[in-house]
Amino acid sequence: MLRNTATYSISADEAATIKKRMLDWAKPSGILLFLDSNSYQLPHRSYECLLAVGVANNGLLDIAQLHGYGDWIFGHICYDYKNHLEPKLASSHPGKIGFPTTRFFVPQTVCYINNEWTTLTIESFDDPGVIYGEINPVAAEQEADMAKLHFTSVAGKEQYLDTIGKLRTHIADGDCYEINYCNEGFCDGAGIDPLTVFNALNKLSPAPFAAYYRLGDKYMMCASPERYLRKEGSKILSQPIKGTARRDKDPAADAVIKEQLKNDIKERAENVMIVDLVRNDLARCCETGSITVEELFGIYTFPQVHQMVSTVVGKIKEEMTFSDTIRNTFPMGSMTGAPKYKVMQLIDRYEQSRRELFSGTVGYIAPNGDFDFNVVIRSLFYNATTKYLSYQTGGAITYDSDAEKEWDEMRLKAWALERIFA
After folding, report:
1. Hey, CA dihedral for 337, 313, 103, 41, is it positive or negative?
2. Whole-prediction pTM value?
3. Residue 226 falls in the annotated catalytic set
4. Is 242 one of the annotated active-site residues of the chain?
């Protein structure tokens, strides 16, 4: 069954308002995924924003069914999918939000704004003209007052510092050489409107891989700066982030901090470790000799932090399916460390919360088979039935890590989420 498609001219001045109207229109749907690049003019992007709404004819697909489907597919993979890829791994902590390990859906309607902010395209099994008529007059809802909430850390400072010491011992003993360690902050009994929270987060911390996701009573509000995996024709690429520095309100001081990050030996060492891991992962999917590092130690500035980003590119083998690429690259190395198998065991041993969708991925597969998926970080997760609201933040631990500085980095990332409710 072919989709009905219509494209409408818009102006750059009204694009932000149309985004808001699109989300307000989609809000009642039981399943939707909104992806927003927030006007970042980064390489390898296809849309300013992309919205998938509803499920076409119960078009829920297993990950093995996604290759060559020939239509839009959207969805997520939780971090715990690692247990399917490595059957000897486990997740010993209970899930609090309840996202299924994987979920992919064929949407009833897809809307997107192009990179130039000049057109809105609607592709749907319904009438695009009717949908446009429903979106266009929708007045952007007034933002509700944000609830004042207090978050509790699962691991307090003393315990967090002690755990970093234990992880450094594992590194000294040769068990691993870098491990991503995270801590959960949570709030029980949180009565929130998830879309209002996303709009506030996206305003305070606009990011190039932002996402708002609803799956029944489960929600994700994401301000991710990181891409996990993208396919463009025969090219596949990953852009791991390792290296974080705070921003400063004073431009001169901020420029100094940015330069310090660029030249920080520890941060560069962390970044290159993960670049090597990603190169190895992509080599399983790509033609021999095709892996290149398009950019190493790139410094990118976001509202709350500066980040060190590298780009690894390869030519994908013709026989590789989508599930093949996931099997060979998931979970992303920036959220595990190296070697992957051992650090995933240590993560489950030392972290006190199940990651669920955190450090997993959401994204889309286009009708031509190209795809783009983010890394789910800088995100809030909410179960509307239990009213449980949470986030997880952390960083990469190496032998040279200073535990106090690692705590400060984790709290910096946490505060960027908590301050919405302060």
Report:
1. positive
2. 0.95
3. yes
4. yes
